[in-house]
Amino acid sequence: MAIILGNLSPQDEYTHALGPEPNFNESMYFNFFDRERRVGGFLRLGNRANEGRAEMTVTLYLPDGRVLFWFERALIDSNDAFDAGGMRFEVLEPTERLRTTYAGRALELAEPREMANPKRAFQENPRRDVELDLVHSAAGPLYGSAGSQDEADRPAEQQFAKAHYEQHMRVEGQLRVNGESFAVDGYGLRDHSWGPRYWQAIDGYEWLTMNFGADMGVMVSIIRRDGQERVGGVVVRGDRVQALAKAAVEADYEENGLYHRRVRAQLETRDGEPLAIEGRVQSFIPLRNRRQGQTTHIGEGMTEWRCGDRVGYGLSEFLRQV
């Protein structure tokens, strides 16, 4: 069994008792990138059983620059499983192996930035049939927390998931798009969170996930709320996890000042090791979440990372309240 860091247990791999809060959310997320075939993407299911729906998102980056995207508020009546909208997540072996599948439609975007106007993008771009079947195997320890008292002390409408953990993964499987097949053999990261959540509960964040191969992964999280900044993250080397003591993230943006295209991260672990990492966005899609007239921008960049002479791939995700 993989090493577990924090107050977590193998049972936390499964869904949890549904809380009474209207905005109770339990979600799993998986990203993956095959550096040789230049294919990657991410999948997410967020169960909001008290609202009777699940937020299902699939985003796939293809080698020629096309991006496949689909979002659906699929109907659910319980929090018993991650299974909605054609997407399913299965725990094959807790902390070690999980399977993700999707069979359904996806919008084919030759210019992913068209998703800035979702209504027009869905009207003007073709739909494709997608089948995805992946197995995610542990490439490092499970790290995180089964409960944050800081979050639990806030009113439910101000919480941003009180429990959360992540893990770097080896990913293998198959993607089919309208009959065209893409083998997947690469790395990625997954997360699992539960508790009340609104995307509007914080001011913004930068979340960077990086895999440099079997022997090195990095995650950086900087969350801003109420004028304060909370820095988190790790450097994973095999079974060894070094927590970050410091992290500063800068970015270059496109002309609108919102879409990031280059990222620089200056990091220092609690052991005193400095790391300078630069990222170049290979493909970008702007997504959003709306609630009560407030729009939250979530910019998703498939990113090539460089740390010294190491080259890796992953995601740079920036959240802004606009």
Task: Record the SSE blueprint.
Layout lengths: L3 E2 L18 E11 L4 E10 L4 E9 L5 E9 L7 E2 L2 E7 L3 E13 L8 H7 L2 E12 L3 E4 L3 H4 L10 E15 L2 E17 L7 E8 L5 E9 L2 E10 L2 E14 L6 E10 L4 E18 L2 E14 L2 E12 L1
CATH architecture, by name, is: Beta Barrel
* CATH level-1 class: Mainly Beta
Biggest sheet strand order reads: 2-3-4-5-8-9-11-12
Tell me the radius of gyration. 18 Å
Distance between the termini: 43 Å
Main sheet properties: 8 strands, antiparallel, barrel
Please give the domain count.
1
Query: What is the multimeric organization of the chains shown?
Result: single chain
Mean pLDDT: 95
Task: Write out the CATH superfamily name.
Answer: AttH-like domain
What's the helix-strand series?
EEEEEEEEHEEHEEEEEEEEEE
**What structural category arises from helix and sheet content?**
mainly beta
**What share of residues are in beta strands?**
over 45%
Which ranges are low-confidence, i.e. pLDDT below 50, for 5 or more consecutive residues?
Answer: none
Helical content (DSSP H or I, runs of 4+): under 10%
Task: Name the descriptors.
322 residues; mainly beta; AttH-like fold; eight-stranded antiparallel beta barrel; 20 strands; 64% strand; globular
